[in-house]
Amino acid sequence: xxxxxxxxxxxxxxxxxxxxxxxxxxxxxxxxxxxxxxxxxxxxxxxxxxxxxxxxxxxxxxxxxxxxxxxxxxxxxxxxxxxxxxxxxxxxxxxxxxxxxxxxxxxxxxxxxxxxxxxxxxxxxxxxxxxxxxxxxxxxxxxxxxxxxxxxxxxxxxxxxxxxxxxxxxxxxxxxxxxxxxxxxxxxxxxxxxxxxxxxxxxxxxxxxxxxxxxxxxxxxxxxxxxxxxxxxxxxxxxxxxxxxxxxxxxxxxxxxxxxxxxxxxxxxxxxxxxxxxxxxxxxxxxxxxxxxxxxxxxxxxxxxxxxxxxxxxxxxxxxxxxxxxxxxxxxxxxxxxxxxxxxxxxxxxxxxxxxxxxxxxxxx
Length: 365
Ligand SMILES: *Cc1c(COP(=O)(O)O)cnc(C)c1O
Description:
Mean pLDDT: 97
Bound molecules: pyridoxal-5'-phosphate
CATH architecture of the largest domain: 3-Layer(aba) Sandwich
Radius of gyration: 20 Å
Strand content: 5-15%
CATH class of the largest domain: Alpha Beta
């Protein structure tokens, strides 16, 4: 059996180091807002090319706090993609604002800047592009569009830590960017954790207050805040893994390159990597008009796959316009019918990559 993702391999290889890091935190018995968190913030800010990084409880909270820092709320519209994980849009709803969904580019699966432009209105305050599967959205066009109209850009970089666009790290393009360290992400904690990136000093200060009950100093609360901190235990574990991230990203890219060779002749859509983009392959997601049959045959052949995502966000029951979805967002709906993510994680063995390639070709015969 070749799993779509196997986190046990990663944790077996790092077991002693991770246990050592956890022991260090237990020894200090400082669990919230301490040295490990500060060190992780500095290391991630350095990697992503921003002045500040603010650790929070999850990627979803990162998005909520980012919107709160920009004081986006009732009456405001935020344009985001129709095709992503639900949190990209639910965070906007939780802020009291209205998500406005843009269709995607057929090749990158990321938000289409032309659609964003069409949907901007007098109430629009921000744009939330998602770097889906680890491929950067068209950040140059999106940021230019937003700047020209005085709108904020909040990058949802939950799937794309380490990716670059035009040579610049994702996360450094927007006013704010959000990372998730959910266990299955390219840099995954052993629990929930997230981070917000920014180079704006004013937003960084506000975010540090927002994550800690709106307090700038102890027991003095200057704004309505959240209780959402990245704890010391997760920070220490993440620091162990962060040192491996560049090598892990290279491993993901090598797997993707080999899949491309193995599947070059197969009747499938392969992921694109735009010339300006450096993809980090959070997922290696193919397209097939026979997706469900392909997944079934691969499962029978012992190859795990996953569908990210079977239903576009505006089609989710919490959004009422679902019935009109396919007409309004045809590319998102087509993607939801066709996408299939193959096994792609750093510990996947060469022989397994070859076996997956063979199994996919055979399943499509
Ligand atoms: C994982 C993810 C999130 C949410 O992160 P959590 O840490 O699970 O809250 C948001 N957006 C995208 C695109 C994600 O993949």
